[in-house]
Amino acid sequence: MKVLVVYKGLAQRIKERLPDDIDVVYPETGTDEELMRLARDVDVIVSTRLSPVVAESATGLKLLQKTGAGVDDMPFDALKEHTYIANTSGSNPVPLAEGAVALVWALAKRIVPRHLGFQDGRDGTRGILLTGKTAGILGMGAIGIEVATRLKAMGMKIMGLRRERNDELREELGIEWLGGVDELDHLMAESDFLIVTVPLTPDTEGMLGEHEFSLMKEGSYVINVARAMIIQEKPLYDALKSGKLAGAGIDVWWQPHFWDPIWNVDGNPASKYPYWELDNVICIAHQIGSSDSQSDASLKIMVENIIRTRDGKPPINQVDKKLRY
After folding, report:
1. What is the pLDDT of residues 30-77, one digit of tens each?
2. Structure confidence by residue, pLDDT tens digits, 236-273
3. Which residues contact 160 (CB under 8 A, 6 or more apart)?
4. Beta strands of the chain (E only): which ranges?
């Protein structure tokens, strides 16, 4: 059996954990032309993102294994009916949850502007008290639950939203409210801090725009550690620049992989709007949840799924091709 791993460093780490009867190949440059050639006779592709032309060239592909949780950059329409797609969702939600909480703290206590203004005495404004404030978590999956647990311990009131209401889970978590997707307006209106952890799907793309931000309290905050396209680009920028929102912590961007010249050939910036010039925004290049523990847990899932594919078994962490998560 042959496995194509799109990154050399990851390929070496995976190969070390696999039996000798599984061949691992990887590209030198990562161009579509090179990947198409390598993909022609592979059983598994392990990748962060993949072009449709590469998926189409892998005529015998049994499994497309995503290196992370989000699969919005996977070529669903190019996959054969018999091809599984799997991710590493839930492998370790704690690092990303900790990152989201760190952004809540940093914004509330104005850590970045206070640091930058330390020597010349700038930024005399006070931070805000988190105890008693309401955290609205959009997406109460594994990551959202970990965020809720931590913010609840800090004395914040917790409200959450998922596909459908779940009173049993609400009681189990001991939170104030857990509504369904049709109750988004209520979540927006009540949240002092809105934390976005929902996956990007055709249903969630662009779900937060001018109407939703107009419902939020004056001086509230938005933290996005999910995917940029869940939030409409201009309405968020306008709400931040006008002062309607007091601040934002952004870990994900509308130009995906803006730092990668292979995927961002034109060198487009992370956003059409200069969020990084606003002094009430913390900008992170999709690294807020990076940690050694998360990487190792994800690696175990990828290795297990490769072996399961060799043995003719379905993978764990299967992604629903219709729901796309």
Report:
1. 899 999 999 999 999 999 989 999 999 999 999 999 998 888 889 999
2. 999 999 999 999 999 999 998 898 887 788 999 999 99
3. 136, 137, 138, 140, 144, 148, 170, 173, 175, 177, 178, 179, 187
4. 2-5, 23-25, 44-47, 63-66, 84-86, 134-138, 157-161, 177-179, 193-196, 220-224, 245-250, 281-283
Contact 260, 267 (CB under 8 A): no
Q: What fold characterizes domain 94-283?
A: Rossmann fold (3.40.50)
Tell me where in the chain the CATH 3.40.50.720 domain(s) lie.
2-90+292-310, 94-283
Whether 294 shows a pLDDT value over 60: the answer reads no
Rounded CA gap, 287 and 251, in Å? 7
Bigger pLDDT: 111 vs 92:
111
Rounded to whole angstroms, the Cα distance separating 159 from 36 reads: 46
Q: How many C-beta neighbours within 10 Å does residue 143 have?
A: 28
Between CA 117 and CA 129, with CA 123 as vertex, the angle to 5 degrees is 120
| CA separation for the pair 128, 109 (Å, rounded) | 6
Reduced DSSP (H G I as helix, E B as strand, rest coil) percent helix, strand, coil of the chain, to 5? 35, 15, 50
pLDDT of residue 117: 87
Fold of the 2-90+292-310 domain: Rossmann fold (3.40.50)
Question: Average pLDDT over the chain, rounded to whole?
Answer: 94
